[in-house]
Design brief:
With 491 residues, this protein is mainly alpha-helical. The protein is built from 9 helices and 2 strands, in the order ααααααααββα.
Length: 491
């Protein structure tokens, strides 16, 4: 017997019925006790016993009626609840049309049954959906595993190809068409390799040209640097010679300036000589009156001759210093010296004549006149020499100024040549570096290879791949015709 099936008559009662029966029994007992107490007080117990018996009977009848009205529907509801607990959701709940609490409880229980039934249907639908999803997941996992294996094979081949490219082999190509899942992998890879090979060919050709031109540039830069060095040395020598010539011209100009001062002094002396000659002529006219005066005049003439001799010597020295430009002045100085000597000799002769005979005074006067004429010519020649010395001094100054400009230009030219020599050295170093880089490029290009010996192939069908899928295609490397490797090393 289950826990939901009460035994006996009382066991089929509901809790409410049992409570009602208990309450009624307590009330009856209370009434009976009250009646017994009242009867003991009044002394009459028979009516009270009759009332107690009636109350007891009512207590027995009321539960029986309650059991019939409430207990049985509740018992049927209790059995239906037990059925719901066992999972029986299809049987209907009894007493749905009853009124009162039993009917309300029956309708609530039926609503619970319908909700449980709906939940069971929803659970069954969810289980069916989960089962369908699991089936689809298993199918998707199989396809994904096949795709992963295919991608792994593709990656393996691409890795092998890139490894060969890293080793310098530029001839690796994809040979077999790849699956559609991989897109234009074959064309993209092959085009990339073709462009890389074309680029390397262009690099090799350009490297050869750069190497040849770098050699030419290196040799030309070396020759340019050598010529620039020689030219700088020659310009430096010319600048040094020009500075020496400038210094010499400056000294010559200074000497010419002194000569001009000497000529001016000689000119002044010649003027004074002319004045002296005039005075001598005047004095000669009075020789007859005083021989002493003539002696003094002769002494003056002798002194003039001595000073003229000294001036002639100085002029000869300055003309010798002037070099070629003073050659004419040397001749004049010699003439002046000769004249000075003759003047001294004439003075002596005059002294002799004065001392010997005053009759020769007229001859002395004539000689003095001739001496005045000679002095005038000497003064004129000294003026000419002064003009010539002035011209020479001006020309020497101009030449010194010009040579200083030339020296400045030569210094600038020497500095420019030194800069050119430094630039040529840098150019030579750049050409040498360019040639070295070209050789390094040739060495690097020599490690490249344009054609492989054998194609690299691999089956791309993954293990356990489902037949009929696109992932079952295969890839391989296509090898182009090989050129000789020496073609790279010849670079």
């Amino acid at each position: 017997m289950s826990a939901h099936q009460p035994a006996g008559f009382l066991g089929r009662w509901s809790i409410a019925t049992k409570l009602a029966f208990a309450v009624a029994l307590v009330q009856v007992c209370g009434l009976a006790a009250g009646w017994l107490v009242a009867g003991s007080v009044s002394g009459s117990t028979i009516p009270l016993l009759v009332q107690a018996v009636a109350a007891f009977i009512s207590v027995l009848v009321v539960p029986i009626v309650a059991l019939a009205a409430v207990g049985r529907p509740l018992a049927s509801l209790d059995e239906r609840i037990a059925g719901l607990g066992r999972g029986d959701l299809d049987a209907a709940v009894p007493g749905l049309r009853r009124g009162g609490e039993a009917g309300s409880l029956a309708r609530s229980l039926d609503g619970l049954r319908l909700a449980l039934l709906e939940k069971r249907c929803a659970d069954e639908a969810a289980a069916a959906e989960r089962e369908a999803l699991e089936v689809r997941r298993r199918d998707s996992d199989g396809a994904r595993v096949a795709a992963v294996k295919l991608q792994a094979a593709v990656v393996r081949l691409i890795s092998a190809a890139l490894a060969r490219v890293a080793e310098g082999d530029l001839t690796a190509r994809l040979k077999v068409d790849v699956p559609r899942d991989c897109g234009n992998l074959k064309n993209d890879f092959n085009q990339a390799m073709d462009r890389l090979q074309e680029t390397m060919d262009a690099v090799v050709a350009t490297g050869r040209q750069i190497r040849a031109e770098a050699a030419d540039v290196f040799h030309a830069a070396g020759e340019l640097a050598e010529r620039a060095g020689r030219q700088a040395a020659e310009v430096e020598q010319v600048a040094a010679a020009t500075r020496e010539v400038t210094r010499s011209l400056s000294d010559t100009a200074s000497g010419v300036g002194h000569a001009r001062s000497a000529v001016e002094a000689a000119t002044e002396d010649a003027d004074r000589g002319r004045a002296v000659v005039g005075r001598t002529v005047t004095a000669m006219s009075g020789i007859e009156r005083s021989s002493e005066q003539i002696g003094r005049i002769v002494g003056v003439i002798d002194e003039i001759a001595f000073q003229t001799n000294l001036l002639a010597l100085n002029a000869a020295v300055e003309a010798a210093r002037a070099g070629e430009a003073g050659r004419g002045f040397t001749v004049v100085a010699q003439e002046v010296r000769a004249l000075a000597l003759r003047c001294a000799e004439a003075a002596r002769e005059i002294k002799l004549l004065v001392s010997s005979s005053s009759g020769e005074v007229r001859s002395g006067v004539q000689l003095v006149a001739e001496t005045g004429t000679a002095i005038e010519r000497l003064a004129a020649r000294v003026g000419d020499v002064g003009s010539m010395v002035t011209t020479v001094a001006r020309g020497a100054s101009d030449q010194a100024t010009s040579l200083r400009g030339v020296d400045t230009a030569l210094n600038a030219l020497a500095a420019a040549n030194q800069e050119n020599a430094a630039a040529a050295d840098q150019f030579t170093a750049a050409g040498r570096s360019l040639a070295r880089q070209a050789r390094m490029l040739a060495v690097l290009a020599g490690h490249l290879r344009e054609e492989a010996a054998a194609p690299l192939q691999d089956n791309l069908r993954p293990r356990g791949a489902m037949p009929g899928r696109t992932g079952a295609a295969a890839l391989a490397f296509e090898e182009a015709p090989r050129r000789a490797r020496d073609g790279w090393q010849a670079f």
